[in-house]
Amino acid sequence: MRALGAPTFLLTPLLHLHLRIFASPHPRTFSLSPPLIKISHFCSLSRPVAKITSMAEIITTAAATAGKHVAGEWFSVPELRLRDHRFTVPLDYSVNDFTSPKISVFAREVVTVGKEEQHLPYLLYLQGGPGLSTPLTPSSMSQFKSSEELTDYLRHFRADNIVNDAEFIRKRLVPDSKPWTVLGQSYGGFCAVTYLSFAPQGLKQVLLTGGIPPIGSGCTADCVYRACFEQVMHQNGKYYKRFPQDIEIVREVVNHLAESEGGGVPLPSGGILTPRGLQLLGLSGLGSSTGFERLHYLFERVWDPILVPGAQKKISCHFLSAYERWLDFDSNPLYALMHESIYCQGDSSKWSAQRIRAENDGQFDAIKAVKEGRPVLFTGEMIFPWLFDEIHSLRPFKDAAQLLAEKKDWPPLYDIASLKNNKVPVAAAVYYEDMYVNFKLVMETASQIAGIRLWITNEYMHSGLRDGGGQVLDHLLGMLNGKKPIF
């Protein structure tokens, strides 16, 4: 689930939704004829007390729930016309509309110039992570009086309520409440599969790009990380093969950090950069098409130049600042808090990535790797409990993170019986070497979705929609519209 850029392509109308949780901090720009809507949340801070009913009941009631919708005036950017919408929606769809606290959802509608008043079909775009467009910032979340209250609030920010919000808005925005097409990228694809499970009546077609989730009951995080650690090691090997000079540079940095007072170097925001923290750069650096180069260029400027003979060697301010920008937890703490919960249905994650990392016989121990003369391995899309000690913006939420890791009563996100009886046309781009969404697990889930059409390719990485948006979308739409052979 990665931050992506801005492909350009033409479609029939598109709706861009960023709902509740996983939206990129770098919004995607499209050139297209359909409306595009981008959604984020402005959240109220009162704590709901709710009993979760079945997903089907919740989504059925969601469409009938009264809510306020305010549409703004059209305005212009080059070649596009935009209009902002705000919807008042329930925080908790499982309780009476008058009982639930409300949150305000912001939406931006985008059409090509001259098509503002046309009745065009919609394509809902659900973007991936790890950035979070919701304004649940460190400062706003600090308004909660306890970690328990914050945890109780955050439980409403998963794929089930993303679907609730989408259905709420579809009923109020789409003429005659017609079904729309959904494009789900990365975590957005996970949400689209939840949509297929519980509200297929709202869907005309579904397009998935690098976003087919594991759908087993309990918590599937352990199997995800076992598979992903293997792919992460493969990506590390490819990185160091391309930039062999970085093997020694990274070892030097690890040694410097380990030998520094307190086991690390202070970060500009007040946290600390440790050897294990350094390895987090793999989160963005190893899984996208340009990630290797960006990571290499970052390490090219890791040291301050020695201007005075005998001066102490220091990590540059440029590197330390860039490190924090790469992680971006100061503006997007919700990703760190909620990431493992996206794999939970009726069981807790128990800090899955940390436990599975420990199973890898010290291969990801940076200090041990240096002592043994091995390359230091970067980690991938994994959140560890020590982040809430070492990253300044996350420290206030350490107790809440622990409560979320222990939480067991997560509601269901998928309905395998419904997926096996799926009637909605679905096409998916599956990236063979995807570091974030494991190919083997994808194929297991795909076998459970009736009628899904797969395009399996190693031409693109997880960032395929950014790197080749026109080609990827054309291929998927062609599969659904009969222009591409299925077999």
TrEMBL record:
Q: Which organism is it from?
A: Buddleja alternifolia
Q: Could you tell me which residue ranges the AB hydrolase-1 domain spans?
A: 144-233
What Gene3D superfamilies has UniProt attached to this entry?
Answer: alpha/beta hydrolase
Q: Which UniProt keywords apply?
A: Hydrolase, Signal
The positions making up the signal sequence are 1-23
For this chain, the family text in UniProt reads: Belongs to the peptidase S33 family.
Pfam families given in the database record: Abhydrolase_1
TM helices/strands, residue ranges:
none
Q: What is this protein called?
A: AB hydrolase-1 domain-containing protein
